[in-house]
Amino acid sequence: MRLSAPPKRRSDDGIVPLINIVFLLLIFFLIAGTIAPKPEIDVAYPETEKSPGANAPADAVYVSADRRISYRGLPVDLGGLAAMVATVNPASQEAPLAVVVDQALPAKELSPVLATLAAAGVVRIRLITRRGGGS
C-alpha cells in the first residue's frame, strides 16, 4: 500500500498572524499613549508621599524657581498667562487646570500666579507632584 506524501507546509504561514498582532499593538499604543512636548522651562517637581503618579498634561502651567512661567510650551508673563488661559480654558469648563511648580519656589511667589489664574476664570487647579520616598 502506497501512502501519499503529506502536503508541504509553506514556511511563511505563521508570519501573517504575527504581523497582524504587531500592527494591532502599534495602533493600541498610538491611541492609548500621549506624546507630550517637553516644557519650555525646567521644573524640579515637588515630591509628595502619596502622589497619584500622573505626568503633567501638555497644556499645564509651569512655574520655575526663578518665576518664569510657561503655558502650552510658550513662555509668558502674568498678563499673557491671564489672556491665554481666558481664551483657551473657559470658566464653564469643569476640568482642573494642571499647574507644575518648582519645588524651590516659595509659596508666597506662587500667590500672584494663582490670583492671575483665578482672575482669568480658572475654577479648579491641580498641582502636579512626583511620588517621593516618604519618611
Quick structural summary:
With 135 residues, this protein is of the alpha/beta class. The protein is built from three helices and seven strands, in the order αββββαβαββ. Strand 2 (61-63) and strand 3 form a beta hairpin.
Radius of gyration: 25 Å
- Mean pLDDT, as a whole number? 79
Number of helical segments with 4 or more residues: 3
Helix/strand order: HEEEEHEHEE
Helix proportion range:
25-40%
C-alpha termini separation:
82 Å
- The chain-level structural class is alpha/beta
The quaternary organization reads as single chain
Strand order of the largest sheet: 4-3-2-5-6
Low-confidence region ranges = none
Shape: elongated
How much of the residues is beta strand, in percent? 15-25%
Q: What does the main sheet amount to?
A: 5 strands, mixed
Strand tally, please? 7
Outline the fold blueprint.
Blueprint: H1 15-32, E1 47-48, E2 61-63, E3 69-71, E4 74-76, H2 78-88, E5 97-101, H3 107-119, E6 125-127, E7 130-131
Parallel strand pairs: 1-7, 2-5, 5-6
Antiparallel strand pairs: 2-3, 3-4
Helix pairs in contact: 2-3
